[in-house]
Amino acid sequence: MKISLNLIKNFINLPVELTSKQIAYDLTLRTVEVESVENTAEKYHNIVVGKILEVRNHPQADLLKICITDIGEKEPVQIVCGGSNLYEGEDVVVAKPGAEAVWHGEGERVCIKETKIRGESSYGMICAATEVYLDKFFPVKGEHEIVDLKGIECNPGQNISEIICMNDIVFEIDNKSLTNRPDLWGCYGIARELSAIYNIPLKEIPKINIDSSIPEYKIEIKEPNKCRRYVGVEIENVYEKESPMWLKAFIVNCGIRPINAIVDITNYVMMAVGQPLHAFDRKYVVGEQIIVRNAKKNELLVLLDNNTVKLTEDDLVISDVNDAIALAGICGGKKDSILPETKGIVLEVANFASSTIRKTGKRLTEKTDASIRYEKNIDTERVDQGLSMALELIKELFPESNIVAYSDKYPVKTEKIVIDVPKEFLDIRLGKVLSREVVEKILKALGYEVEYKNEIYHVIVPVWRSTGDISLKDDVMGDIARILSYENFKPMPLSINIEHAVHQNNVLLERRIKEYLAFRCGFNEIYTYPWVDEKYLKAAKIDVTSSVRLSTPPAPELATLRNSLVPGMLSAVSDNLRYYDSFKIFEMAQVFEKGEYHESSEDEILPIHKKFLTGCVVDKNAKQIFYEVKGIVEEMSKYCHMETLSFIKGEKPTWSDINAYLNVVYKNEIIGSIGLLSVATMSDSKIKRTNVAMFELNADKFVPFLSRTNEFKHISQFPLVEKDLSIIVNDNIRWEDVFNEIELFVKEVAFVEEYRGNQIPKGKKSIMLRVKITNDEGTMTLDQINNKMNNIIKILNKKFGAELRQD
Amino acid sequence: MGKELEEILNRGVKKIEGVNNIEEIQDVRRELIGKKSEINEVLKTLGSLSPEMRKDVGIRTTEIKNTFIDKLNKKEEQIISSKSVLEESIDLTLPGNKVSSGVLHPVTQMCYDLNDAFLSLGFEVFSEDDISSEKFAFDHLNFAPDHPAREMMDTYWIEGTEEKSKNERLCLRPHLTGASVRYLLKHGAPARFVYPGRVYRNEDVDSGHERAFFQYEALIVDKNISFSSGMVMIQTILEKVFGKKIKVRMREGFFPFVEPGYEIDMECLVCEGKGCKVCKHNGWIEIMPGGVIHPNVLKSANLDPDEWTGFYINIGLERLVMMRYGVNDIRYFHSADLRFLSQFK
Is residue A589 within a helix (H) or strand (E), and if so which, with residue range? Predict the structure, then answer.
């Protein structure tokens, strides 16, 4: 919203030394966020009135003219111009060199320079309205027309901002910071804040009393809960005419387009006090009667913007004896708007309930300056301010006007809220003891009535803050604190009661797992969206029958919320393969499935949430990455301090290869799988010329050890003997069986490598393993070592038909 | 005899000087001072000499032997010290081997940094599930019944529940604040805790807006504290992120779940408050909202607002990461793009 400093100055006498920058700062800290401060004269710098003395043809161009123009300097200057409405003696707008203008009203602002156009020198330019921000003052009629100041008193060289009364400072206020403050949707509310901030008096808006002898205008309010007050004033001898420049300038500065004097007055009053008004052409209010009623079902209404809306019984309309003539509080109707033939008006100053305005506005997607204000819930007394200000302006602009009928229907009055604020409460919550004088001064400046008794401030909230904004003692405390400014409260240290240290093993475990994967295993952590692309769900062959879905997803194919992190992984792998051949990524996040789960209360039924940990290694060498992933999962428990993870071959994950997969077991329960991606899954995910080994674990199952559980083992005083052994066995012999057999006889046994190839007979493989043997009684002799190794070979031969490999 | 000895000495010294490697030195050592060396031969003849000569020759012979030993040792030392473990030349400008380690997501890093800081102030870490209900996401938090955030257009509602209300209308949580009531219902007061997490908004995406983004919220609930104590939490965050004390200011702001509410600005680090492009020429950058927990929210958590009060702050984690590293587009964070993520080692 835009606020005019000129208008503010009508309401308070600001100290002269106060800069607009300081006002913006103080408002931002204490009341609302000021987004920018604009001096409205600035953009008209070097844009002046010129009088064309002579118009000549341009020797090189048919469409251009050479204008000898008086711009108030010593000598007239020559300006080349393509305007279609140039004539000698015309008063025009000239952008002198150094001015800024927008070429043909489009694009960026450019600086005007003295230049040559087709060989003829041109000192600046003669402007069209859109080129120098004048189109709201001088509506453009023809395409190549320049501004003709005919009929306006002006002198060559005079700055154009003087002509159009552009000498204001405009504060642009962030509307978001005004949502809870209906009182601030007009300059008067801001002026009131400034009067409290700077401790200067606020002028009252004089109330105009309407002669009681004036006949009553017929008004009937059928829905008093929706329309709490309706004032109608019938005025004759008002008609469509242009507003004076000062009013136009104000309207433009508020970001509105001037229309005609009547409409401009209603907008002026709305911007000044925040009370929307509407003027009907009285001729079209059939039966000279206004009825505020609910619309009939499917009733049609053509709005001012030519939009025809179909109404429901929830919508509130202003109606004459026949039809709806306006959508209450939102938009006037087309039929009775102010037109050239208008001779008199019915002025509406009314109060509508916020909920009805919001509901209707939303359904019809109609948002207007009036509806924005009503939606914030305006108090019913504001009608008086709006009415008085409007009548005064009408009298000023239309001295011949006359009030012919009047009525004020006022079924529901906004009641002022009463609150008790104990002094002790203020002292503690503010962290500062304030004197009674300070508290009362601030509250009274904001319009509160205060009475102090028995250490309690009995507070009556001003009516303009009583519509929802202020209802608790906390709200009153907030008002005091902000006017004092939060800058003036020193940070107070927090006191600590130490009962125990924070000890959250689950939080730690999650971090250990992430750090293990990233720092020890070389994975990069990723985050993907919880909604997953159908393409990847299909690629991973994921069953979505129990998936949770979004009702309005970001895109139609993204409606499913994930029940596995694998689809997101597939998408990430596919994307990254454009830049990398080999990489490792992981994600830890929640997945969802339909079900019943109560997190905080019995009546709240949430779907099932599980925290999954999923990662993958991408590389060409399928076997190598399979074992890499297996190793990463195997070792995880050791580094992260939880019970061991082991493997069994059970059910195949939907996305995995037919052979290369395993299920992961934790505390006797299957909690996930590892595996190579299947050919189909890779092809459907556009993962080409590489392989992916994936793991997916339900991390909710992990239980952290209460502390580290490493165990000290006695270190043998005799040396361990390390021996490598290469055996040849049938291809179907499993390492696990070999391992289990040897383990009994040696201190340690480790797999080194497996080999199939030229030197090995078909159907066989060679396994190289490493054993560590020792003797608790002393250093082993060569004989002892040989005996032990021979024994091992014998056993392997007997159990598995193993032969020693001879190379 | 004397002349002969001097010749042995000269020959020997020359030989030692001519040695180039460690193997030769052993040969020369044997030749000059071994059993069969000339000097040893001289010593063997000592018995046949006259007593005076024997003494002179004996002394001189020993001197020569010692000279040889000394020179041989020095030569050996010299050779060893000029020897390299390498057999070939080495290009010292070749790059060192890279340490291959992965990286945590920059949002996770930021979150852990803040967790560490708040842990030192005795805050617990709490997390809430991603899907919540209108009751916890809005009703408990003093959102008006017709608050726009409850609309279909702003929040991701779960299919099949969108037409219901309160506890039965489910959504991807639009903010973290609902978690505060869950925690307080579970643990009561006093309480101090942080609850980082991801939130979801039905928005158009551009370089500054995302549909899924991370927030970090902290709440302290206690008796008789003033809102000015909340400043400590703000300073904790900023000091942790930027490594130094940062000037902040609180100004009036409105959020349903706080009263009073604040917008918190920090001094622009680029221009130090003088005004520049980054801070849109006002010297301050809006970084987080905060405020005193609203009495109605305390009531939702079964706490008596006359007894308890508290202070919230909430900050966007992506925003902090963007400020810390100068990242210019929020969409990178959910892109899973390793060209982005791998920069934050």
Answer: strand A583-597
Tokens 């428990």 sit on residue: A637
Contact B124 A504 (CB under 8 A): yes
Interface test with B, best of A175, A363, A524, A570 (most B CBs within 10 A): A524
The band of A807, judged by pLDDT with boundaries at 50, 70 and 90, is low
Of A481, A502, A527, the CB nearest to B260: A481
- CATH number for the domain whose boundaries are A721-804: 3.30.70.380
Q: Hey, are the CB atoms on B251 and A552 less than 8 Å from each other?
A: no
Residue A495 has pLDDT above 80, yes or no: no
Strand runs (DSSP E) across A441-582, as ranges? 449-453, 456-460, 524-525, 531-532, 560-561
> B298, B305 in Cβ contact below 8 A?
yes
Same domain for B210 and B174: yes
Tell me how far apart the alpha carbons of residues B320 and B106 are, in angstroms, rounded to a whole number. 10
Choosing among B228, B258, B262, which should be mutated to test the A contact, i.e. which has the most A CBs within 10 A? B228
Q: Is residue B14 part of a domain?
A: yes
Superfamily of domain A505-701: Bira Bifunctional Protein; Domain 2 (3.30.930.10)
- Cβ-nearest to B131 among A472, A477, A609: A609
Sheet containing A691-698: order of strands: A524-525, A583-597, A606-619, A691-698, A669-677, A656-666, A645-648
State which residues form the domain around B33. Answer: 2-81
| Rg, chain A, Cα only | 42
What is this model's ipTM? 0.87
- Please judge whether A522 and B101 are an interchain contact, meaning their C-beta atoms are less than 8 angstroms apart: yes
Mean pLDDT by 10 residues, chain B (345 residues): 83 89 88 86 82 85 90 90 87 88 95 92 92 94 82 86 91 94 94 95 89 95 86 82 86 90 86 80 85 94 94 91 88 96 92
What is this structure's pTM? 0.83
Q: A with B: how many residue pairs have Cβ under 8 Å apart?
A: 231
